[in-house]
Design the sequence.
């Protein structure tokens, strides 16, 4: 396919299911150094690579500033062979290597974006553009898409899939470690938790003049971390930190995490609804237990899934693994908040899966943008909305009718602005004909997924943009007939059509967790013995954001908590 | 709104599922369960300490 750019199509014609079956019998799918069955703990697939010169450069040794330090002078990547600090190497599968090398396709991505009519004029890509490109590239390799519903997948297949994902993780991690060693990037992100976080906390403590905040052993340090985790849902790092500082200071004054000056967090948007609920839950549990100290004690102590079940705590949902498996008490705060808090406070065995890790996982499944049956159902639904509402989906320009709308004084002012806004048409067709949209819908239904150059996708983008422009906030009451149900339906359709999948269900979590465990085992086998699930996740998180940013995706921020704090401090200095 | 609901079906995302479950239980009632769990853990630890 044309958009593949310079990437060799190494695994063409090899279906996913066939691949994992073959892998189980010793093929090259999944982690399989030396043609084995993949990585076996205690019987590593790593081979001693000392003395081999192929692909190994001689950069200066550099150690990371954590308890575990490495001599990384011999760390290298030679095609599919990854060599670690102890001189041992593993060989990742062809599929994993191909999936890891998508950033070599940058030029291909530029061409791909140009194929979209609407996208051509935009300076930056949407995340969906990147995701759709990833999915197309995945399919072009011959791999079969992995559906979200993987519960019930045969264990052998599950293990093989986790092995392939961990191979891609390994390629990304060693690449970023080498870049860090060679000074090509400032940080791989592997120190985000642990020392990275405690150093940041110390700095924040100094900035806020709050000495108790400097330690995770204090109520202040613990509660700040709890609030930081609770306000992270769907936020950029900078926004997360800004909110956390504000809410932490409010908690210090009032002892409450759910209400600030009589108000809840922010309103509007799914992530804000979730944040409000998390803050309220933290607040309510702390009150019920007798104070924040008790809440933190609970969050930091260990329990078992069995014990949680015995107390009827079924809200945590299905949890893969043994019922007697030890888990941190913070599990009761939910899968994201609980694990992120655990990681920040030093439990690095848990895997935090945020939206970026969800996308990372889906890059190895071919489902970053793919919506499956949902798209077909929604395409049918929007056609039905169009057919049953000819007053909105008409082809002749028609000015917006403001007659009969009652305006208050402020709304009147906006009505004047409004009158100038919709100059061309009130039609929801946005310049297309019904026939064109119907034809495009048929094509999407037949294909089972939208593509960047689909007419209906472009219509969806225009529809979404128009809806956003019609947001008049508190002045919009009199204009509600304009921002009506049908438009909302179009907006919802367009959002779902052109959004990435960044969520994970129980089955995908267990897959991601297994892949993370395998990744850590492989890291240890080549000498990265200090790495943990959390440190690997943090480095992968840093890396995927960089890659998506390089591909032009908006809002793939490069901030860390420390960098965000530095910005806050710089602003404070300027004010002084 | 009807169209929005039909076009935005329920998700199986783990965070959403958890939040919905807590809403269904009620945050106060959920906190009660957690308090019982905590008390049970305290009792278990106290017993273990007594045993030495």
Sequence:
């Amino acid at each position: 396919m044309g958009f593949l750019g310079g990437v060799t199509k190494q695994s063409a014609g090899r279906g996913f299911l066939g691949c994992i079956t073959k892998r189980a019998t010793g093929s090259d799918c999944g982690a399989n150094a030396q043609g084995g069955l993949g990585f076996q703990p205690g019987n590593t697939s790593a081979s001693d690579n000392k003395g081999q010169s192929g692909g190994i450069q001689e950069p200066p040794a550099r150690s990371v500033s954590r308890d575990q330090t490495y001599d990384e002078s011999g760390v290298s990547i030679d095609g599919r062979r990854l060599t670690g600090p102890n001189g041992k190497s593993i060989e990742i599968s062809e599929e994993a290597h191909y999936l890891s090398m998508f950033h070599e396709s940058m030029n291909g991505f530029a061409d791909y974006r140009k194929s979209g009519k609407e996208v051509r004029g935009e300076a930056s890509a949407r995340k969906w553009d990147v995701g759709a490109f990833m999915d197309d590239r995945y399919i072009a390799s011959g791999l079969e898409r992995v559906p979200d519903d993987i519960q019930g997948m045969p264990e052998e297949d599950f293990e093989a899939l986790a092995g392939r994902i961990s191979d891609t993780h390994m390629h990304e991690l060693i690449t970023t470690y080498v870049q860090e060693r060679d000074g090509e990037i400032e940080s791989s992100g592997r120190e985000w938790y642990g020392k990275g976080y405690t150093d940041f906390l110390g700095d924040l403590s100094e900035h806020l003049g709050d000495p108790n905040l400097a330690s995770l052993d204090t109520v202040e340090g613990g509660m700040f971390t709890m609030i930081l985790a609770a306000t992270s849902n769907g936020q950029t790092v900078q926004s997360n930190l800004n909110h956390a500082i504000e809410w932490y200071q409010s908690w210090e004054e009032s002892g409450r995490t759910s209400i600030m000056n009589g108000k809840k967090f922010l309103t509007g948007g799914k992530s804000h609804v979730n944040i409000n609920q998390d803050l309220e839950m933290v607040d309510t549990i702390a009150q019920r237990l007798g104070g924040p100290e008790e809440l933190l004690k609970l969050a930091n102590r260990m329990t078992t899934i069995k014990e949680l079940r015995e107390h009827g705590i079924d809200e945590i949902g299905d949890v893969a693994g043994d019922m007697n498996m030890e888990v941190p008490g913070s599990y009761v705060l939910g899968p994201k908040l609980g694990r992120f808090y655990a990681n920040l406070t030093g439990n690095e065995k848990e895997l935090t899966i945020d939206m970026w890790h969800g996308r990372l996982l889906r890059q190895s499944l071919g489902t970053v943008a793919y919506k499956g049956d949902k798209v077909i159902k929604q395409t049918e639904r929007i056609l039905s909305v169009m057919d049953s509402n000819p007053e909105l989906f008409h082809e002749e320009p028609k000015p917006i009718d403001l007659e009969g709308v009652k305006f208050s004084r402020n709304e009147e002012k906006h009505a004047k602005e409004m009158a100038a806004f919709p100059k061309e048409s009130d039609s929801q067709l946005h310049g297309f004909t019904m026939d064109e949209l119907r034809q495009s819908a048929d094509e999407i239904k037949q294909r089972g997924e939208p593509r960047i150059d689909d007419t209906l996708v472009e219509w969806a983008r225009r529809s979404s943009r128009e809806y956003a422009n019609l947001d008049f906030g508190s002045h919009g009451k009199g204009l509600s007939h304009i921002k009506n149900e049908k438009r909302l339906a179009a907006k919802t359709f367009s959002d779902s059509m052109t959004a990435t999948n960044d969520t994970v269900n129980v089955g995908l979590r267990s897959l991601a967790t297994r892949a993370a465990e395998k990744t850590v085992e492989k890291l240890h086998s080549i000498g990265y013995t200090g790495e943990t699930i959390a440190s690997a996740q943090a480095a992968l998180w840093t890396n995927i954001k960089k890659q998506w940013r390089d591909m032009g995706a908006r809002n793939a921020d490069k901030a860390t908590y420390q960098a965000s704090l530095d910005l806050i401090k710089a602003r404070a200095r300027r004010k002084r | 709104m009807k169209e929005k609901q039909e076009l935005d079906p329920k998700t199986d995302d783990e965070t959403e599922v958890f939040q919905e479950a807590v809403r269904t239980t009620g945050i106060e009632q959920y906190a009660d369960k957690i308090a019982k769990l905590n008390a049970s853990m305290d009792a278990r630890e106290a017993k273990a300490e007594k045993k030495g």
